[in-house]
Every structure is written in C-alpha cells, then in structure tokens.
Design goal:
This protein has three helices and two strands, in the order H-H-H-E-E. By secondary structure, it is mostly helical. Strand 1 and strand 2 form a beta hairpin. The longest helix has 121 residues, at 2-122.
Amino acid sequence: MIVLAVLWRYAVPPVKRAMDERREMVRRQIEESQQASKRLTEAEARYSQALAEARVEAAKIRETARADAQEIKDEMRQQAEQEVARIRERGEEQLAHQRDQIVREMRGELGKLAVTLAGRIVGESVADDARRAGTVDRFLDELQAMAAPGSGPESSTDSGANSSAGSSTGDGAVSVRNGRRRQ
C-alpha cells in the first residue's frame, strides 16, 4: 500500500499531467484538422465559383466576339453592295453616254444616207439644211415608229435602220426593203 500511496502521490500526477497535455494536444490537432478541412472546403467552393464565373465570362466574350464578327461581316457586305451599286451605276452611265454617242453618229450617218436616198428617189436636191433636217427627222421618226411595236428602244436605231432603209452595197446602190435596187 505504501508503494501504492507513493506511486499515487509522486508518479500518478506527472503521468496524469502528461496524459492531459497529450489529450489537449490531440484535441488541438483535431480542431486544427477540422479548421483546415473547413478552409479547404471553402477554398474548393471559391475555386468552383471562380471557375463557373470564368466560364460564364468566357461564354460572354465568345458571344460578343461572334456578334462583332457578324456586325463586321454585315458592314463589309453592305460596303460591297454599295460599291457594286456604284460601279453598276457608273457602268450604266457610261453605257447611256456611249449609246447617245452612237445614236448621234448613226443619226448623222443615216441622215446622209437618207438625204442621198431621198435625193435619188425624189429626184430633187435636198442640199439646203432645212430640207435635209426635215427629211432626216421624218426618216428617223418613221424608223422609230416601225421599231417601237416589235422591240425596245435599244434596237430602234440598230435593227430599224437595217430593216427599213436597207443596206449599202458599196457601189452607190442601196437595196430597199421590198427587194428592189435603186441607184
């Protein structure tokens, strides 16, 4: 018993103290482990949230880029269409100018041929300018009247001149519409 009492008095308190310290240290380690686990869970949640936000932001950026690309494409298409319209308009203006120039040239040439033909047919000279202009205008009006029912304005000077006035054979003779030749 004495040994037991000595042990109880001198050995048990330091062992008890060491065990209490050990227990306190284990409790603190468990507490720290729980806190670390909690912080890890919070960090994982923040990471997941940041990743989700980054994905949403990336999707927004992609959509914005697509919209910008579509807008640029539409703008370029509109500019190209405007350029095509401008080129087409300029081409039509050039064609109209060339057509007017050809019509003027054809009027002059047809006028000379008409005066010559009229002079041969009628047997009188149409040398003065007033008669010549009246004959040429009358002839061209008849050509346009003949060409109007069957074709558009482009062919009135081309096909009308060949079909109604005839063509020159090169030797001064002109073939007329009904097939007879006149000198």
